[in-house]
Amino acid sequence: MAHNLLKGKKGIIFGALDEKSIAWKTALKCHEEGAQLVLTNAPVALRMGEINKLAEACRNAPVIGADVTNMDDLKSLFEKSMEHFGGKIDFILHSIGMSLNVRKGKHYTEMNYEWNQKTLDISAMSLHKVLRTAWDMDALNEWGSVVALTYIAAQRVFPDYNEMADAKALLESVTRMFGYYYGEKKKVRVNTISQSPTRTTAGSGVKGFDGFINYAEAMSPLGNASAEDCANYCVTLFSDLTRYVTMQNLFHDGGFSFTGVTAGVIEKMENPNLKG
Fold first, then answer.
1. 249 and 190 in contact (C-beta within 8 Å)?
2. What is the spatial distance between Cα 4 and Cα 239, in angstroms, rounded to a whole number?
3. Architecture of domain 10-270
């Protein structure tokens, strides 16, 4: 059921790759709640062609390619978006992450540092570049909202998450720092959502991902949060109902982040042959 939470608002969604992605589902929810959208992704991702289906579903939202590590691309994206909207922007979703060391099977203790720089640039500093571009162009309305997606590996060790843990920690730091300055200047709020492990195309590339999901499910009183529910949470953060929430890392994980152990996990440790 739609509640018109975003009626009249205009936003840019970064990173909608395919129907599995949180950004894709968030775009649909934002559209359902009354928002006008611009969709963007890296040119190589756009060549897959999937995003055009999303654009149609969102009332023919424009699709504008942009390399998030390139300031000229980002400037062009914001110029074209404001031209399309006829004014400034109210919200942004940053749903971007890529690890070359993970892709190429490099262990954390043996990482290629050139690849690591690219990972940090794409997955974390890209948020700074997006915010810097919006800041320089005065592209966001007062009380605007920016949300980036992260994971609890920024605070805890998940060995196979590799260098992405470092990238997410940097992403969360950028959120706090830029959130402070943007809040002072324009009342713009900047937050991260620390989502449950979710079966997206990008997430599934992490070694042992099924183990991540199963463990989190067993350790979460409410169970893992779905991509659809994360999209709903994003909508609330884009809405005027959360105007004083900023610089936060908000856990959306069914309680996983604050659960030490569950009865079910203890039972399995005591009875290793237990099924389920």
1. no
2. 10
3. 3-Layer(aba) Sandwich (3.40)
The 3-state DSSP class for residue 193 equals strand
Strands (E), 8-74: 10-14, 36-41, 63-65
Which listed residue (108, 113, 151, 181) is catalytic?
151
Q: What is the pTM of this model?
A: 0.95
Q: Please tell me which residue in 108, 113, 161, 215 is annotated as part of the active site.
A: 161
Active site residue 113: no
Could you report the per-residue pLDDT of 209-232, keeping only the tens digit for each?
788 899 899 999 999 999 999 999
215 tagged catalytic = no
pLDDT tens digit sequence for 60-113: 999 999 999 999 999 999 999 999 999 999 999 999 999 999 999 999 999 999
Domain positions in the chain are 10-270
User: How many whole angstroms separate alpha carbon 168 and alpha carbon 7?
Assistant: 31
